[in-house]
Amino acid sequence: MSLTNSSGPTAGARNAACGRIAALAARLPDRTVRIMEVCGTHTVAIHRAGLKDLLPAKIKLISGPGCPVCVTPQSYVDALIDLALRPGVRVATYGDMIRVPGLRTTLEREAGRGANATVVYGAMEAVDLARRNPNEQIVFAGVGFETTTPAAAVALKLARSEGLKNFTVLSAHKLIIPAMTALLESGQVRIDGFLCPGHVSVIIGSDAYGPLAARFHRPCVVAGFQPEEMLAGLEMILEQLAAGRGEVGNAYPRVVSAAGNTAAWALINEVFEPATTPWRGLGEIPCSGLAIRAEFAEFDAARRFGLTISAREDAHGCRCGDVIRGEIDPPECPMFATACTPATPVGPCMVSREGNCQAWYKYSRNPA
């Protein structure tokens, strides 16, 4: 049922917000306004709530590189598979990563053939795995944005303090603002404003988007994940566009502060340092990744096992890269809902619970 047909005070607030958004849209130039959400949780929440159907036709929501599993390059998946096949090595990974296809296979498939891989819920569980299995090398697949990186930093510090010689992290941790910057610099996709991620912004703070907003004159508004919170963020973006402004806004002040979590940032900076890193769909982006500092080199799986992660992609016709950039919607990929489904995923955007393709398939796919 459409949210606009619901009753009660919550539905009334949504309808009022939609009315204000429609009025603002009428004041904008006669062209499609393209607003990108750069958070996988936002993508899923938008589809689940049916927000796209509530907005005026001239407002198009596009999904960006906010799913950490989706933007992890194929060569990283292949490196995990390589490690899991080595004698005495066990890969500890989040559940979504185990199903992401590499060049020829998945970690899940190889585990069925004897590769050593264990699904964990976080870095601390991987540390405990190393404690309980001293005869195995435990490699934690460090995938995620600023939200999950502090936990990986704590795990690395703990491993060093305990002298755990059998624990390492293969870091694929990434920073979201360099990716947003790269999208605007490329000019491949027109983006009129950003709905900025709530979880990441808890760590980095809303002020972190200031330089990007100022340089490109694009509204950057942080929003929460309830329909009312996302509508409030969209309304703030449209208010700025109608007034010819491109500034930072915060529609999630009860959770996100201007400065963010400075203690978490200090922890990240103690253990990691910015590095050029490859992104699926975006190539290599300078200072967009977090590499393990030399002080923690003995716990860096890339150093210990001599691994190199590249931007190589060969997904056999999958257009996940184009989806990640916001260049196309998932149904525009010829494999969507045919060869590529959640049961038989070809690319990570269909594997991940935060992937745009899976969200489209579950909530927005038109029945055949």
Protein model, in words:
- This protein has 368 residues and is of the alpha/beta class.
- The protein has helices spanning 9-26, 40-49, 51-54, 68-71, 74-84, 107-111, 123-132, 149-162, 176-186, 198-204, 210-216, 227-243, 262-271, 301-305, 320-324, 348-351, 356-364; strands at residues 33-37, 59-63, 89-93, 117-119, 137-144, 167-173, 193-196, 220-222, 248-250, 272-279, 283-292.
- It folds into two domains: 28-318, Rossmann fold; 320-362, no CATH class.
- The protein contains 17 helices and eleven strands.
- The strands form three sheets. The chain has a five-stranded parallel beta sheet. It has a four-stranded parallel beta sheet with strand order 4-3-5-6, with helices on both faces.
Main β-sheet: number of strands, strand sense, barrel status? 5 strands, parallel
Rounded mean pLDDT is 93
Within CATH, the superfamily of the largest domain carries the name: HypD, alpha/beta domain 2
Which spans of ≥5 residues are poorly predicted at pLDDT below 50? Answer: 1-7
The best one-word shape is globular
* Rg on CA atoms, Å: 21 Å
Amino- and carboxy-terminal Cα gap:
20 Å
Short key terms for the protein model shown above:
Rossmann fold; 41% helix; 2 domains; 17 helices; four-stranded parallel sheet; single chain; disordered N terminus; alpha/beta; 368 residues; five-stranded parallel sheet; 11 strands
